[in-house]
Amino acid sequence: MTEKTTHFGFKTINEPEKQQKVGEVFHSVASKYDVMNDVMSAGLHRVWKRFAVDVSGVKAGDKVLDIAGGSGDLSKLFAKKVGQEGSVTLTDINASMLAVGRDRMIDAGLNVPAMQCNAEQLPFPDNTFDCVIVAFGLRNMTHKDIALKEMQRVLKIGGRLLVLEFSTIWQPLQKLYDVYSFKLLPFMGKLIAKDAESYQYLAESIRMHPDQETLKQMMQDAGFDKVDYHNLNAGVVALHKGYKT
Ligand code: SAM
Questions:
Q1: Ligand 1: does its nearest atom lie under 6 Å from the Cβ of 120?
Q2: Which of 97, 100, 121, 167 can bridge 238 by disulfide, Cβ–Cβ 3.0-4.6 Å?
Q3: With a 6 A CB cut-off, is 101 part of the ligand 1 pocket?
């Protein structure tokens, strides 16, 4: 029997290898992840994340699940929104990334539990959360359809999913963006994180990720209603939102 294949950046690999390879990327970059985000986006990732929180409709008392939450930027912002009566749970498959996030929550004095889990098999009952967010995580998952269905399952009726992710840039800017992605990004990765390869993977994985309309359809296929998206910075990033009804 031939094994199913998938993409790891531009490479075609057997499906079971993907999780391990993605794991290696994030173990390698975890300690430099936050500084690299600021440098490579010139601080813009903070604006994108704030925008996601602003359009989430999350209010005091809500229960929020941060999937692939890594170093916890979104968990931190949502914790302030939901207040003492609400809750935020930070999750990630990668122990190194999660450790950075967990320490940041403790240092900020926030009561945000950190749990290691795979988005494709969430350890939560059905109908638990008012809002689920996955920021820059979906792209790295092997079975995005299964992960999206899991996100739908754990949402309460009326709850919403936010997917913040790199997407397809406005065509006239594509050439310039390619130079930035394939020349500058790996260079910065080498300089700061001592790891050019992981940032080459980042650039490639963005190109392989479903575009705005395809992701919208995937969310609909996973059972989400009223799915729509905002392009940010000419489509460098898109924020998709959908409801469980
Ligand atoms: N959400 C954070 C942010 O926006 O800064 C971190 C994003 S980081 C680019 C991607 C994260 O996805 C990594 O921490 C990685 O470990 C996590 N990840 C990849 N595959 C995953 C999976 N199957 N389940 C849960 N997390 C996953």
A1: yes
A2: 167
A3: no
Would you say the CB of residue 206 lies under 6 angstroms from ligand 1? Answer: no
Of 94, 100, 202, the residue with max ligand 1 atoms within 8 A of its CB, to mutate for a pocket test, comes to: 94
Ligand 1 atom having least distance to the Cα of 30: 14
The pTM assigned to this predicted structure is 0.97
Separation of alpha carbons 63 and 82, rounded Å: 7
Place of tokens 């079975």: 143
Q: Which residues pair with 91 in a beta bridge?
A: 115
Match 């092997």 to its residue by tokens. 142
Query: Using one digit for the tens of pLDDT, what is the confidence trace for 160-216?
Result: 999 999 999 999 999 999 999 999 999 999 999 999 999 999 999 999 999 999 999
CATH for the stretch 5-243: 3.40.50.150
Domain ranges of the chain: 5-243
